Each structure stands twice: as structure tokens, then as C-alpha cells.
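Title: Prediction job returns without error message
Component: structure pipeline
Severity: low
Priority: P3
Assignee: unassigned

Description:
Job completed but the reporter wants confirmation the result is attached to the right record. Sequence as submitted:
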Amino acid sequence: KRRCVPLAADEDENWLSEFFCFIRSELVEIFRANSDDVASRMNIKKIDFGQVGIRCRYCAHLTHRKKSSRSSCFPSSLDRIYQSMTMMIRDHFLRCHTLPNELKTKFITLKSQSNRGAIDSKKYWVKSAKQLGMVDTTPNQGIMVTEASITAIQS
């Protein structure tokens, strides 16, 4: 069975709307690109083996062709995670065939109640990613995780 590593962090509720807390804790997970991920994106945006991505946890088990659009993203840097998530929110979750209906309903409800996050919340996305062990590669070649964080995640 695949291990799920949520994007959520303990401080999310202090910085983010209930909607973003829901997305980060219930709908997405972080993962490292495998050879299938690299091959499936050869014609789009090149990614590297082991590069950190964010994906919908409900369709992660499907083949690339069976997933709805924007089911995963590979932000080029930590400060692009927020933007990548907004594109997933706009283009994926309502079209995801494997997302349970009760979660789609909650998604719609929270999205309609949500106001944009505070300006400082974008800084928080970077800070919380660093706390999960993510680091930028140079120059803007994507995000990787440190060996210490890999060990912590696997234990």
C-alpha cells in the first residue's frame, strides 16, 4: 500500500483559511517522482527522478492517462507551491472521478466561503514546505527533499 504524506503542517490553521487547510490535509499529498512520472511528463515540462511533486491522493493510484487534468504538479521552487495548488484547485478536484462525493461537496462549500489568504500566508507556504524537509534546487530546477526528511517520513 502507498504511504500518504500530506502537505499539511501543524500550524496551518493559524495561517490558512479552512479551505486551504482542508486541501492540504485531506486532498493532496507530497511525493517523489519515479521513473513513470518522469516518462509521462517528457512532452510537457521535464522533471527529474526524485523531484518533489504534489498530487491528488484520490487518483494517485491511477495510470497517467486515467487521471483528470492537473492531478499532480511539480513546482519549480518552494515559492511556486501556492500557485501550483491554485491551478490544481481550479482545474482538478471538481473533475476528479475518484474523489468521493462528500469531499467534493465539502470542497465546494469551503471554497464558496473562503476569502483569499492573507499576504503573509504565501510566505507560510514556503516556511511549512521547508519544515517538511523540502529544499529548492539551483537554479529553479524543482524541489527536492533532504535525506533527513526522507528518513523521518519513512520511519
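Comment from assignee: result matches the submitted record. The radius of gyration is 15 Å.
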